[in-house]
């Protein structure tokens, strides 16, 4: 009982005090080169715009964005800098576009004195979000190719005579790899799973479950039947981290029934608090989470935490993470073949980094054992479970809000 109390104290302390900086995001651009002119259409989500400008009033946001984009979206050529031209009709150099709900769009015209040796530069949003990705389409000489601008790849030189190279499979592989590398919640979940491993062969089963979850998400994404939304998706990832922590606590605690109903009860209390604040969407999300958590924890208690139960949870984690890229693809209007290639590369990169995390953790554990270093196993599990519950609860609530 003391161990359970200690875990709960750590849980609430971490939930209240931990935060993770948001360093990711997406935007979209189309660069149309015609003669000595370059037409740029730049689209970004409203949330990205508000975070960048610090203004929630649309007029103020648009005004601040126009100046920002002129500084961070530029075109160079053999004749020097290609200036953005005034479009007339009191539009100025940046024309706001109507591109759909939850999106801001802008159009800029550049004119070059010499159209040879064109270089497109895009440094927008990377300063405050190193993990930001811009899905770019380059239209030149009747051809259209897809490229990616990232913090490490902020400029693209266009050949004068050859076709513009498209982003290769390796670019999408790196995109999935860095997606996991920059996601603290994914790290926590994958490493937390190792607390439940009792036999080494179960590590291989976990990797297979991850691959199966991503594959299922890929197949479902290509049908077009599911239109995922990134915000609730990310909130549920936090929920899974906390659920894993509660499951570890349940296995370690003597009073497993108390552990099985403790976290679902807390979620229900949060439901009551949010109901008073009239946040209906969050209320329904937490109600569903409480029901799922109670059912899962009672099932693991009844079955003695069989490996198949954990493999199902791992597959669910990978299945949801496999929808992260499809959730941000629609504004880019990609052809189906390119979408498939992008998703395969992204998912494969994510699985490879998950496997790398597991391999490094297992190797470190084996090294400690070989040197006969005694670790307080029970206390270590308690601290890890507390961290998972605290961080997961924080991510769940902050992302629902």
Give the structure's gist in a few sentences.
By secondary structure, the chain is α+β, with helices and mostly antiparallel strands. Helix content is 58%, strand content 16%.
Structure write-up:
The chain has two domains: 239 residues, no CATH class; 144 residues, no CATH class. Helices cover 58% and strands 16% of the residues. The strands form two sheets. The chain has a six-stranded mixed sheet. Strands 4-3-7-10 form a four-stranded antiparallel sheet. Helix 1 runs parallel beside helix 13, helix 5 runs parallel beside helix 7 and helix 6 runs antiparallel to helix 12. About 2% of the residues have low confidence.
